[in-house]
């Protein structure tokens, strides 16, 4: 049988009910009364979820390992155990009021691929490992993507775990406690380098759902640039100060935001330019505002575009702030990532093999794949989620939407494991 | 000697140093280290200031009285003690971090008029009383202008003193304690109705200073209308939600503020339209704002203009809020007051007699005169203050600026007292 035909067979063996049941079982761990999940990184619930996966693996005659960052691996041995494995994965940790699908879907879809292979009695050439990376969300402690960035060497684990959690505990202590509490043997992160990494995830945006397309093949992850704009005017009495003599910081901020608004009207709608935080001083109804702080969240797949818009923001602040003083400064920046075109072609072929329509899509949010892309061939696929809502307890996707992604993941994983 | 000539004589007897020294002495009561004043209504400092004035009156052979609202009166008997008196006044209470001049100037200028008349041995036909009204500021308890509005019958004193102060005490208890602690005999507010009321005050705005004009003859007090605008959109991820699908409440608020901005550019610069308070939810840098609350402070001397702009605000919210939902509602309104033209003519004549340039001016802030205007011929005059700053410890005016106003007050008071 051809590998393509076998890929189709593996995809067909993905079971809608098994996938859904496993996902719902994981969602009970840290589950909230209204259907959401609170399974923040390195909490008891997070460790419980890892132990659940370790037990599931043992029940399916699969081995589990855990590394220095608490990353959990479930391994299906290939015929060539010396060949670098294919990794499938995402994360099990959630936002404090998160949904059932963000992260958990990618891990569970990977486990269902392993279960299907086992059920079919098929052994790929390369081993396939499903990874649950530690603290992708960064809600309980920063920086997020702790496990994947340590694994990829893009950040030092020792540096990252020096922080405190929002519970007031030391990250290093929580990490040690969590690793000790799981039943998986240790395996240093430096002993295994993957041949490739695939991550399945809900889109966390509305594009696939609104276009009725089941699979998004992720081209890359947008770069993010945060710019703080400070506008300083002069407080004055709202009744007595004539407009011509005012230095109204909110009026100046309004001019700045208005002048930048046309940038968001481009037909391609790729640039994301959000004024999410605005604070006014003294914020009193009868006082002309003396100061406004604004944060701009600027995202685009091309660094050159981010740079151009950041420069334009500087210009607009200089033009529109007077008679107030205005200043814009970059406070953080993450460069865009572009996934390898060969892996996107493979994912497209997997969609064709499985028979699902797909489109190319840009990830607006960060993911563990951003870090893996630095060290191996990396790809991501998205499935729709209801109304594009994520990081919220109402996050939702249907079993059919989820299984479509898991089948494409299965076909692509088989394909990569045979190379 | 003609009354006009006598008015000139009284004005000339106003002593720059005496006026300044008395004002600085009052400013020591509740004085703050950096030159400001904290003499909030019905505090120990406020009562101390009243006792200081009572002692000053006694030292100048003038009688003092106090009414049910704690309003303090210092009286110079006229030749016709049965004729309704002329009132001169303002208030002694301050903002918690207020200045030396707001309110206190009008009281001290009145006392200096009485001192000058005494020193000249002149007796006007009508008695002249200097009044310090209780709680003009409304900073320690609301509503402000407690004393003057009770005196004018525009609000019930019993209703007003039911509230608690910011110190957690009952206003009624504080009022009783303050009255008992002063050394002035009681005189019911209903036993005296004035023939006229004049109030001298710092402008609390920048117009006189910027135009180099020493006296503002107040045409009236602007009406104030507070409008709350609520804009409800939908929160979304700043990275994943395309702009064409957003319901960004801050973007909608920006359109509303921009569309209203041209109203503030009128050549006459009379309308005051201030967005002083703006609050964003959830106010997180990576979340498209789901809700914005705005408060508009709208002021104009003509109620018809206030009504027209309020209607325009409704229109603009309806036009610019979509795709968000927007609603504007009036939360409070105070009608404009127009001072009697005859008294403005008298004040202009007093300026001519004293030899000071003047201009007609609108008061942007509320004053006790607003209430007195309901029951008697009422007028106000303004003197410049530095940079138009008020309600701030840096509030400032020069002895020369202050004496100019006191001289015009003296000439006008003499004029009115002879009628």
Structural account:
Two copies of one chain form a homodimer. The mean pLDDT of chain A is 95. In chain A, the strands form three sheets. In chain A, strands 1, 2, 3, 4, 5, 6, 13, 14 and 15 form a nine-stranded mixed β-sheet that branches. Chain A has a four-stranded antiparallel β-sheet with strand order 9-11-7-12, covered by helices on one side. A two-stranded antiparallel ribbon of chain A has the order 8-10. The first copy, chain A, has helices spanning 3-13, 16-28, 44-59, 104-120, 146-151, 157-160, 171-181, 207-211, 249-260, 303-320, 341-354, 369-372, 399-418; strands at 63-66, 72-76, 86-91, 128-133, 196-202, 215-221, 223-232, 236-237, 272-281, 287-288, 291-300, 325-334, 337-338, 358-363, 377-383. In chain A, 36% of the residues lie in helices and 22% in strands. The first copy, chain A, is an alpha/beta fold. In chain A, α11 packs across α13 (399-418). Chain A folds into two domains: 3-221 and 336-418, Aminopeptidase (3-Layer(aba) Sandwich), CATH 3.40.630.10; 223-334, Alpha-Beta Plaits (2-Layer Sandwich). The two termini of chain A are 16 Å apart.
């Amino acid at each position: 049988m051809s590998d393509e035909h076998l890929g189709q067979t593996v995809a067909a063996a993905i079971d809608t009910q098994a996938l859904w049941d496993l996902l719902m079982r994981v969602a009970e761990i840290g589950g909230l009364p209204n259907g959401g999940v609170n399974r923040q990184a390195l909490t008891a619930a997070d460790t419980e979820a890892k132990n659940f996966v370790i037990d599931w693996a043992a029940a399916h005659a699969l081995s589990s390992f855990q590394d220095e960052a608490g990353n959990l691996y479930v391994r299906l041995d290939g015929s060539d155990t010396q060949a670098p494995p294919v990794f499938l994965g995402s994360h099990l940790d959630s936002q404090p009021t998160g949904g059932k699908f963000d992260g958990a879907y990618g891990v569970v879809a990977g486990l269902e691929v392993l279960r299907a292979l086992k059920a079919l009695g098929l052994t790929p050439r390369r081993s396939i490992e499903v990874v649950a990376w530690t603290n992708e969300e960064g809600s309980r402690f920063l920086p997020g993507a702790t496990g994947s960035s340590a694994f990829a060497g893009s950040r030092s684990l020792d540096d990252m775990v020096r922080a405190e959690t929002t519970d007031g505990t030391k990250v290093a202590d929580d990490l040690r406690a969590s690793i000790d509490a799981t039943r998986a043997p240790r395996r240093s992160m430096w002993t295994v380098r993957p041949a490739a990494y695939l991550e399945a995830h809900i889109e966390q945006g509305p594009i696939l759902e609104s276009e009725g397309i089941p699979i998004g093949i992720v081209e890359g992850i947008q770069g993010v640039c945060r710019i703080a704009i400070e506008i300083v005017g002069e407080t004055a009495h709202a009744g007595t100060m004539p407009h011509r003599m005012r230095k109204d910081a909110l009026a100046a901020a309004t001019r700045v935001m208005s002048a930048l608004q046309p940038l968001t009207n481009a037909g391609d709608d790729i640039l994301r330019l959000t004024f999410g935080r605005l604070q006014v001083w003294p914020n009193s109804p009868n006082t002309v505002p003396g100061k406004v702080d604004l944060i701009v969240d600027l995202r685009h797949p091309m660094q050159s575009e981010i740079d151009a818009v950041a420069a334009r923001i500087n210009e607009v602040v200089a033009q529109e702030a007077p008679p107030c003083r205005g200043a814009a400064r970059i406070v953080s920046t993450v460069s865009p990532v572009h996934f390898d075109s060969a892996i996107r072609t493979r994912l497209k072929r997997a969609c064709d093999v499985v028979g699902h329509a797909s489109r190319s899509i840009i990830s607006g949010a960060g993911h563990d794949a951003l870090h893996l892309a630095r060290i191996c061939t990396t790809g991501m696929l998205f499935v729709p989620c209801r109304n594009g809502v994520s990081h919220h307890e109402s996050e939702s996707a249907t079993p059919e939407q989820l299984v479509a992604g898991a089948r494409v993941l299965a076909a692509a994983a088989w394909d990569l494991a045979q190379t």
